[in-house]
Amino acid sequence: MMKQLFPIRHVMGYLASLVLSAAALIVIYGDLSKGANMAVLLVTAIIQASLQLFVFMHIGEAADTKKELYINIAYALFVGLVTIFGTLYIFVWGWYA
User: Fold this and answer.
1) Which sequence ranges are marked TM in the entry (predicted)?
2) What is the pTM of this model?
């Protein structure tokens, strides 16, 4: 009964997120080359995003709503990319009125 009440999967996901965040922070303060820093940060970011999707957003659990879930993720990626590149377009490249 207690095993069902305690969210061990969520606790382990939280601890893994902390470890991945600490690894990314150590890379920033470490003495690696710029390419190695970017590679390690990219790998930890992909693992972190996957962990968030599968553990906390339950992407692999509901088979009946899988289509809607992937549509929502694609929309979120679209909005994020438009925000990032729109900001770069306006502020960095100077294309403002």
Assistant:
1) 12-30, 36-57, 69-96
2) 0.66
